Amino acid sequence: MSALLAFEDALKEIKRSASVRVDKQTIPLINAVGRVLADSISAKISVPPHDNSAMDGYAIASSDWQAGKQFTVSQRIPAGHHPEVLIPGTCARIFTGANIPAGADTVIMQENAQLMGDKVIFNEQPEAADNIRPRGQDMHMGQTVIKAGEKITPIHIGLLSSLGITDVTVFKQLNVGILTTGNELIPAGEQLSNGQIYNSNGPMLSALVNHAGHHVRHCLHAADTPEDTEIALKTLIQSCDIILSSGGVSVGEEDHVKGVLEKLGEVHLWKIAIKPGKPIVHATLDGIPFLGLPGNPSSTLVTYHWFARLLLSICSGEMAELPQPYLVDAGFNRDKTIKRDEFLRVSIGKDGLAYAHPQQSSGALLAACESQGYLHVKANTQVEYGYSYPFYPFSGF
Ligand code: AMP
Ligand code: MG
User: Model-level pTM?
Assistant: First the structure.
């Protein structure tokens, strides 16, 4: 029996073995939310492109200011107009977003201006650069603004639009094949007979994969026979960039995934020291990466979150980043220690402490729905009230 692989070592192994499996394509920026940027983007212009006014008011040269001095308004500059050079000793009426005229170095907001017929007096002495948004305040020409591998967000759409960009080069979506296994499983919508349960991992994995921005090419189901498993895998190999499966990866007589993989490809069985989770099959079939997750739904979820998500993300060209934990104090004690890293499904109480859901069975999914994230309890560690542990909100996955 092979030794258990430590959690961190399994993550390293995924990172080591995985590489980008998709080509690039150029698409309209507006359709790019959730896609992975393939080429870093640098600013071709500065934003804003010119010094401009942050206020409705008056532009002057700060050195012209004197207490009680009456300024002539020598020009009017609405946003979008090209200003004249400021006549020395005068002021320009200016509006928010309008370019600052050469010769002016400050804007006095209109609330601080006193109109005297067609003249204006400024009672407070302005400082140079007041109320001016300088050229390049947001982005400088040449600056890298998004790096290859970042996932494009709605904020990026705004940012890139402000640079005048209409198209971006992204990675094509990863085509993911999903295989669920088990004679006991039937699809939701059918009538259950004795001994049967509904297939929840198929829809859950499809949803997780979609939610991460990938494309589910096929979601197939195989009975617990080598023949059925082989037919399904051969179908998936033909059209998918990567394959995930659930169940059938243990060493029981009804577990056929590993055997078929051995026939069709190159296989490593990992027993990872985590709970829930443990047996995972990692393989390559015709050059296509394959990750076989355990069948118990909470184990499927945890191993998807930690390992499949990382693998998919690297294969899709994304920067491989693990979710960031927060340190949270435990609101409970647990004397028992186990030899595996445990990912307890917990919620954060109003007191800010983490509370473990009472149901931590690897078969139970409601507990995960009723929790907010994982408390990572390292192998051979007790949980002590008031001590802090890394907490990973589900939203980080
Ligand atoms: P296995 O890894 O195939 O031995 O499955 C472990 C447990 O998970 C068994 O109780 C299965 O019935 C259950 N299971 C396996 N696949 C699924 C699935 N797709 N949906 C729901 N439960 C499953
Ligand atoms: Mg099974």
Answer: 0.92
